[in-house]
Fold each of these.
Amino acid sequence: MSTKNIEHIIELSKDLRWQIGDDFHDVLSESIYAEASKIVESSVKKDDQKRRFRIDAQIDKIVTSKVWGFPIMLLLLGVVLWLTIIGANYPSSMLASLLLDMIHPMLKNGANFLDFPWWLSGFLIDGVYLAVAWVIAVMLPPMAIFFPLFTLLEDFGYLPRVAFNMDALFKKSGAHGKQALTMSMGFGCNAAGVVATRIIDSPRERLIAIITNNFSLCNGRWPTQILLATIFIGAVVPESYSSLASLSAVIGIAVLGIFFMFFFSWALSKTVLKGEVSTFNLELPPYRPPVFWKTIYTSLIDRTLIVLWRAIVFAAPAGAVIWLICNIYIGSESIAAWLVHSLDGFGFLLGLNGVVLLAYIVAIPANEIVIPTILMLTVMVVGIGGGAGAGVMFELDSVTATGDVLKAGGWTLLTAVNVMLFSLLHNPCSTTIYTIYKETKSKKWTTIASILPVIAGFVVTFLVAQVWRIFS
Amino acid sequence: MEKQTKSACETCSHYNAEGLKKLGVNTESFDFVVALAGNPNTGKSTVFNALTGLRQHTGNWPGKTVARAEGAFEYNAQKYKLVDLPGTYSLLSTSEDEEVARDFILFGKPTLTVIVVDASRLERNLNLVLQILEITDHAILCLNLMDEAKRNHIEVDARILAKDLGIPVVATSARFKEGIPELLKTISDLANRKITCKPHKIKNIPKNIEKAVEELSTSIKKEYPTIANSRWLAFRLLEGDKQVIEGLRTGKFV
Amino acid sequence: MSTINPVVSLLVFFSLTILLYYVFRPTKGIYFLLKKNYKSKTKTIIEDILKLLYHNQVSNKNLTTNDLTDKLNYNNQLLIESISKMIENELIYMENDSFRLTELGNEYALQIVRAHRLWEKFLSEKTGFDKKEWHERAERKEHELSVDETNKLSELLGDPKYDPHGDPIPTKTGKVAPKKGVSLSELSVGAVGRIIHIEDEPEIIYKQILAEKIHLDSQIRVVENNRMRVVFHSEGEKFVLAPVVAGNITVLVLENQAVSEENIMRLSSLQENEVAKIIGLSKECRGENRRRLLDLGFVRGAIVEVDLRNPLKDPTAFLIKGTSIALRENQASKILIKKE
């Protein structure tokens, strides 16, 4: 067939389009719906005219009421987070003792037995294996608790009501109410939160939700916050208040994250994203009792394992890099030591130190390994005993011992506060960055999402450090 | 609408496979490819799971499956590939989900399309059904969530509906696996073309638009005599759909 | 390691921030001014003069050199140079101290107007930019679009006839639909009409009209008109405007009083336990938003009622075709209904 005739059809369509006028789409939509009504008239019998099922309406009245709407929401989120953080402790420590205290020495012995050269067993077992083991031990239990709980709420149909309740707040910062949910999902894992933004079908609001998801303090960062708050912030108040003080500090950081999320949502919608198409609609589906076991099973498969797998894929090479920079020497210094010293000046300006900055650079793949890396680097740089050897990440059993190592590394209250801030405000982990790229398919937005939080982190820690120094 | 005579080539499975392969569907070793379409929140993914035994997560959310999910099942010694399309309200707009769903039905030409609807919200769901019936002749209506409809005191007469729409209608409650055997049998019957569809076409369009559509669709048919959905292409052309224009130019529809 | 004085570093930081702000702040920043100056070469100036002359010629006003220097924000030297260049190229000529467009100049001016209005249409249909920004963005874009690009743009948009403010878009061949209607401030009490144009210049007045949420294509009835204020009813709401503001709204008077649809109102004003039928979507509801609402079933003839009110007032969930769908106030206000 000749293309000429096709062009003729297209030309014809243009002419006809001009004749019909602008409202073709309206008329077509109306006609189809009118036809649907006609068909329904003959085949559907309704007993109770139009009224929605009564129990649904009753539940909706309560969960969106002025009095109960917000308390119910906060209570549910609080319970889910509490169950996750407290409940994950036991399986986490069990996994840690299994993977780190039992299997790791066994592997080392096995490597010795097989006469591996020191560098090979170091690289594979101390580097790659340890990083992966760490990520699994810290990441798996909270996610295995958080996601099923969240999914149950989702399947029941409660989450769209949360979006409905919260929308006015998000609208003010140019975002969509559904971002309340992707944000909450981010408390579990930012990568999962980014995937969850698929429920937002408006292009601009979805990008906002993706870029700002990192401001939700994720599972990999809660332990860091809790540990530092316990060691440093709990210590400045009388002992009877110490757990209260450290708890408030952690919650304060999470709330600060929400504040930054709102602020950057607003700033983005007013600047780089203002040209993106923005629409709003939110369907409130009927409540459906979730099929309990199936939900648990599918959320484990769909969310937990997929995210865990991605994390492992990224953590393994990171472990290798950490081991290598600690064991390759330039002159008399290892690469790590050299990097720590060159980053010290900039670190001081931010109220941090070179160790912290290097730890955040090499631990891009997973926030979970930041504390072990910091401890390992501190021991190495300061030259005190207690470590497990160059390039071997470790954590100490007692909080006091961890505090002693950090204080030996020159940490003050300011350092701790700023590390807590920087842990909230830094680039997303590489799993999240990769996920952002997969979801947006855009290098530009991925770059913005990666760099924006680091800049915020630099500015905030810098300001805190300077003001702190002036007043102390 | 006059009935098109189908060439032998158009109905054989190899013919379908070509279009599907272009959309990245592995068609090797499958006898049929079945697309699963429907509004968001109609339990589409539950139907998908009930048919394939896969456990894909189904959230109580509009628009959960953005990417295409694929699964397979066997029935009467024939192998079926099932493709779960994103849930959409319509195929007339330009969102990403709608493009995925539309491209698959339009360019992929699956053996048949199962349209899942919520029995208690039939009117809203028929909007999409009527649009799909403009694109394809081989479709089955899966009247899902019958349990919920019963709770809401809504009765749907599947027989009248089947007559009005001109396609087989199967009532199911996929959550409880009710109606799934019937659905499987209907899929098999239609796939083997034991039953024929005479789908309902949209009728009550204002005269001036109907005239334009007729004129365009006639000239499309002149160019591509075997095309089954010239009317729908005419709709899209009148909306200035870039992809359909491109598809016409490159002959993607043939 | 040397320590750095915190006060000094803070000072350095803030002065850097302020510097960056002054360089890069939107529209008034040094960077943007430089960019604008670099771009506002003779071509832009010439095109702006042509446009100004065209608009004034349409309303039968004559412009002298002084008028041009007053109205256009350019360096006088540059303006004079451009004018002489335009006379040389036979785009304009002098007549009794004022400038007139030649045939060629008129054609050129129409092309710029076409590009401007098409770009506004594009912004309204295919992007999320706010109404307030359309005009300014089109002011810049009109100088960048070639004739070819303009035609392609028009095709992409389906060759629209009107821009989002209700102004006619000149066709490829330079035809312009004549302007109709009268200014709202000239209507007498009791007059019924339909808003067909909302002027987007000057910006101060346009912003006031936008703040009032007056919708293009809505039907109005004047209930008061004096030197102090113009009061009218539209879509179930009451609007009070200063005469200057009302002067920027053009209304097509509907002679036949019977067409008056007084009981049309906006969905946003529907109360709980009321049932209404949808009459249609306002012209103000555009692009992707409009298509979405239609897909969701907000079509003419559909029955709608309030399902749930939000604890924070916005959005409201409406029951439509068996499903509860939440819409924000600014969307609901663009859906027109009639109570059952």
Note: Chain A touches chain B through 61 residues (CB under 8 Å).
Amino acid sequence: MTAVAQRRSLPGFGLTMGLTITWLSLMILIPLAGLFVKTAELSFAEFWSTVTAPRTLHALKISFGLAFAAACVNLIAGLLIVWALVRYRFPGRRIFDAIVDIPFALPTAVAGIALTTLFAQKGWLGAPLAALGIKVAFTPLGIFLAMIFIGIPFVVRTVQPVLLDLDTELEEAAECLGASRWQTIWRVILPSLTPALLTGFALAFARAVGEYGSVIFIAGNLPNVSEIAPLLIVIRLSEFRYADATAIAVVMLVFSFLIIFVLNRIQHWAQSRSLATA
Amino acid sequence: MTIEVRNIVKEFGSFRALDNVDLRVETGELMALLGPSGSGKTTLLRIIAGLEWPDSGVVTIDGEDALAHGAAERHVGFVFQHYALFRHMNVFENVAFGLRVQPRKIRKSEAEIKKRVGNLLDLVQLGWLADRYPSQLSGGQRQRIALARALAIEPRILLLDEPFGALDAKVRKELRAWLRNLHEEIHVTSIFVTHDQEEALEVANRVVVMDKGRIEQIGSPGDVYERPASAFVHGFIGESIVLPVEVRDGRVRLGDRDLDLIAQDAAAGPSKLFVRRHDVAVGPSGSGVFEGAVKAVRAFGPMQRADIVLGGLGGDILIEIDAPRDHSLKVGDHIGLQPQRYRIFADR
């Protein structure tokens, strides 16, 4: 008796799985493991004092707090932009559509310098704001603006295809059932977009947490005022305090992972309600 | 609730989707709008629902000007071909949607909503699916839920756009009978759009046949089948043999032969002779108006279908006829064919 080889309807599982694991290991897992190994050179007390130092805590707070706030702004602004781009026909629509991608393509340093020039105390926008007593450049507010700038395409590009695909018959059905325009948006359209909105939010947030290039130009980088965590890592590296640098990196990594994991679960939950299969 | 449509014109760009359409639907009717795609039937339905606006004309529902209101205020139930169920809501919430969006003043209490949705789900015989999501249902179940959802707001009229168009043949047949029974039970004035003649003839009390934005005929299923008002209706409903003839001095000519047929009231000139495939009597050669040779025979069910080459008409013409099984037809037989019932319409 010879065993009949098990046949799969989709061939190539072994090859693709092997490649996936090799690639993930080389590109992501091994470098990240190195981070932990380097950090382990510190005793726990040293590690703890590094990450709980007031300057570190402040930098982490700035990075995560402002990234979260910027992602919230981008969630709403991005939704409005998508709505305008998808639902209305107006002259220049394609140009606007292309402009959305600029923060993707622009070297972040260029974006940072442009924003700084604009919002510096003598800049086009900085001057009138300064007259109102609002200082943007070299303050956390500037960091916040830079994070909004680089995060917006993530929300727009994830939500746009979903809204394009959304059947207009759903809105017609809601209207025939007596729903007002607001009720239709609130009860029919937004819930259908929720999974995409969450993905866009998570991407914009992750990008803003890790953003370096555009932020450091406008931030002013004053310790305990407008210093972001990635910059603090660079400073520690330039002081040859590698283990301290990786300790901060590890904290960022764990935090980011937890936040993205939670967002992922929420998204999964939102999606499973609509796409549940029997 | 009566629906009255007068002089409706609707154009999409240079395409005239509806060309001066008049229609009156009586209370409690179940009416079918039947026609090929592009005949304007769906556009007419959407105008009645308020999802589309006519360029000119009048629509009244129960004597009241419907065009003064949008779809949300018309209290019209609408069922879409592809169901249009809300995917993120379970079956219960889908059906309850129309009740939940009512203005607070007249909104029902949660207990009343629950009771009403339960009754509707029982009506469509799907009470056991209340907690499921639309993606977990079959096509036939989805369409029944869509119907329950449309009925939840106690609509004045019910409009169905190709309601069974996306379903497979067997489910379609079941739902046809089911829809007819449901209509007898709730008796709401209903219009449904279909391109499937069998569906229209089987389900509706009255059938409106449309073509190119115009109404060709309005009548009972028996009427449109037995007494088609135009060449289009005769050709579209049922299967017909169509022969190009000429009417001259009250006589019917095919090629260079006079046929022993009555011209009816067709005007002189080029015309078309329509005969239902089963309205042809087959006899021995010389027994009928036409002579033919049997080319092929396919027997199934109670009838047999035969391909016949008509001879002696200056060029061979191939026709298909349906004959009872007891009549023996063999390939190569020469037979006589006599149309027992026929219609002649002048070419437009």
Note: Chain A touches chain B at residues 167, 169-170, 172-180, 183, 187-188, 191-192, 194, 270, 273-278 (CB under 8 Å).
